[in-house]
Amino acid sequence: MPEEYEIILPIYGMSCQKCVAKVTSALQETEGVVSVDVSLQNSSGTVVVSQHGPTRDKLLQVIVKAGFQVVENNDNNEEEASTESVKSLSEDEDQEAVFSIQGMTCANCAQTIEKGVAKMPGVKSATVNFAAEKLSVVYDPGSLQKEDLLSQVDGL
User: Fold this and answer.
1) Among candidates 76, 65, 68, which has minimal Cα distance to 38?
2) Strand 123-129 and strand 95-102: pairing?
3) How many whole angstroms separate alpha carbon 117 and alpha carbon 41?
4) Which pLDDT tens digit goes with each residue over 82-93?
5) For residue 18, what is the enclosing H or E element?
6) Which one of 32, 52, 111, 126 has the minimum C-beta count within 10 Å?
7) Comparing C-alpha atoms, which of 149, 144, 147 is closest to residue 128?
8) CA-CA distance, 134 to 30, in Å (whole number)?
9) Which domains are seen in the chain, by residue range?
């Protein structure tokens, strides 16, 4: 009976090397894991476990807990933004827009979007809630339109 087993796992939602490092770290911290090799390109991970190490299901749970998927998403994986609501804070003043952001796979993605939008002329504040997949922007409608915000997010 072999003392170690190799388990190949699907891992979806990784978009950068920070994502790979996060998954790798989570799997390596699991008791009974001997080695981990995660591939961004192949959307998979090869895990060597000891004879009494974790099961495939346990490893899949670790991946999900780390914030990634183990089933391929049939939707377009690229970031998509859609306006959910826009409210005027007062007449002739700033407006607040809330966008639904899909495709963020890690906190680094959220930070990139937040910084990219915040530096736009006319933006007073930009806040991304990674868990809720929302972007809230307060902006001057006289110098910036919602479409400009959407274009900026799509370009990030």
Assistant:
1) 68
2) unpaired
3) 28
4) 434 444 444 457
5) helix 17-28
6) 52
7) 149
8) 31
9) 4-65 (3.30.70.100), 80-155 (3.30.70.100)
Report which secondary-structure segment, H or E, holds 22. helix 17-28
Look at the alpha carbons of 70, 74, 75, 79 in this order and tell me if their dihedral is positive or negative.
positive
Distance CA(123)–CA(21), nearest Å, equals 33
Tell if the pTM clears 0.70, that is, is over it: no
Quote the longest CA-to-CA distance of the chain.
Answer: 75
Asked whether the beta carbons of 86 and 135 are under 8 A apart, the reply is no
DSSP secondary structure of 45-73: EEEEEETTS--HHHHHHHHHHTT-BSS--
Dist CA 138 CA 64 (whole Å):
33
Q: How far is CA 12 from the centre of its chain?
A: 10
The token pair that represents 76 in the structure block? 């377009």
Cβ–Cβ under 8 Å, residues 106 and 133: no
Residue pLDDT, tens place only, 100-143: 887 777 778 888 888 999 999 999 999 888 777 888 888 888 88
